[in-house]
């Protein structure tokens, strides 16, 4: 007989996770690799909102957990499934419903799955989770070599602090470096490029170079909403790519972009960027579900 139970023993949970299948595990990459960090995350999840398991004859067959990243905002990690067990869509719903049953209607529960490598769509359909957006991880292993000279792009200057700070904070709200942290980090391997036209900052790009791993990350970039669709972000990316390969001995330049428009993402191919991974993001909002069924 199957039972839905709440687990409270970290060692029991870790032992099952280590031996389980991850084919349908949301936010798998959020599991810390360091044991100490993993224990911290696990203890927080046990305390709130909980670790929920499906058991048969006292043996764990599947489990799901979550961690909070903001008030009533959660990222779901799971399901983890036993090697010889098949978790049906309805069984997944039972696990998820138990996990969220004590949370208020204004809560939001987020899922993330690697497209092409994980199976998740029927689970999301069963609980009525909605597609939110896609995170694309792109990388380029060489500069295409085309001549490029954009006089609108310069290194950061203090006079543009206010405009840069405002644009960055409007664009990146969660778990991002602050404008001051970015500026304080600037050195030989941390560069901030800004796009200036008519005396106005219309976009920026922050490049971090890791000489030990021989790669560079375009950590943040954005253009002002008043000047979108003018190719400013595209120009900044092209500039940073060429700058990185010309000034450092690196193997690749990479970045992440969040978008619903796959056609826009494909434009980066023109610069030499290729999609390395893509993660489909879903969210479940109880209040919307209740509204749908009551209307």
Radius of gyration in whole Å, from Cα?
22 Å
Note the total helix count. Answer: 9
Percentage of residues in helical conformation: 25-40%
**Binned strand content:** 25-35%
Give the overall pLDDT as a whole number. Answer: 92
The arrangement of helices and strands along the chain is: EHHEEEHEHEEHHEEEHEHEH
InterPro entries: Acyl_CoA_acyltransferase (IPR016181), GNAT_dom (IPR000182)
Protein name: GNAT family N-acetyltransferase
Keywords: Transferase
GO molecular function, one term: diamine N-acetyltransferase activity
Task: Give an overview in words.
This protein is of the alpha+beta class and 295 residues long. It folds into two domains: 2-133 and 281-294, 3-Layer(aba) Sandwich (Aminopeptidase), CATH 3.40.630; 142-250, Gcn5-related N-acetyltransferase (GNAT) (Aminopeptidase). It has helices at residues 10-19, 35-47, 89-100, 121-126, 161-171, 179-185, 232-247, 262-266, 286-294; strands at 2-7, 51-56, 59-70, 73-81, 108-114, 130-140, 153-155, 190-197, 200-210, 215-223, 252-259, 274-284. It has a twelve-stranded mixed sheet, with helices on both faces. Strand 4 (73-81), helix 3 and strand 5 (108-114) form a beta-alpha-beta unit. The model has no long low-confidence stretch (mean pLDDT 92).
């Amino acid at each position: 007989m199957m039972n839905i139970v709440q687990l409270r023993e970290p060692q029991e949970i870790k032992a099952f996770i280590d031996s389980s299948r991850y084919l349908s595990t949301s936010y798998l990459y959020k599991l810390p690799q360091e044991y100490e960090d993993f224990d911290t995350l696990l203890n927080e999840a046990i305390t709130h909102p909980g670790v929920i398991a499906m058991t048969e004859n006292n043996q764990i067959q599947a489990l799901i957990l979550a961690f909070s990243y903001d008030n009533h905002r959660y990222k779901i990690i799971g399901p983890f499934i036993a090697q010889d067990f098949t978790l049906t869509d309805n069984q997944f719903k039972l696990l998820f419903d138990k996990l969220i049953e004590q949370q208020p209607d204004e809560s939001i529960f987020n899922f993330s799955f690697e497209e092409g490598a994980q199976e998740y769509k029927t689970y999301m359909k069963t609980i009525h989770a909605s597609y939110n957006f896609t995170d694309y991880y792109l990388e380029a292993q060489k500069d295409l070599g085309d001549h490029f000279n954009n006089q609108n792009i310069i290194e950061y200057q203090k006079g543009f602090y206010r405009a840069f700070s405002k644009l960055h904070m409007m664009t990146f709200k969660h778990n991002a470096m602050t404008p001051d942290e970015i500026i304080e980090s600037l050195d030989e391997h941390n560069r901030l490029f800004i796009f200036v036209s008519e005396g106005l900052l219309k976009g920026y790009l922050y490049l971090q170079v890791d000489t030990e791993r021989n790669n560079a990350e375009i950590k943040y970039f954005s253009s002002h909403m008043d000047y979108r669709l003018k190719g400013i972000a595209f120009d900044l990316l092209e500039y940073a790519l060429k700058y990185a390969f010309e000034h450092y001995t690196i193997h690749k330049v990479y970045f992440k972009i969040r978008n619903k428009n796959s056609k826009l993402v494909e434009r980066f191919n023109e610069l030499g960027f290729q999609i390395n991974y893509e993660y489909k993001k879903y969210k479940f909002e109880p209040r919307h579900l209740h509204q749908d069924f009551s209307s």
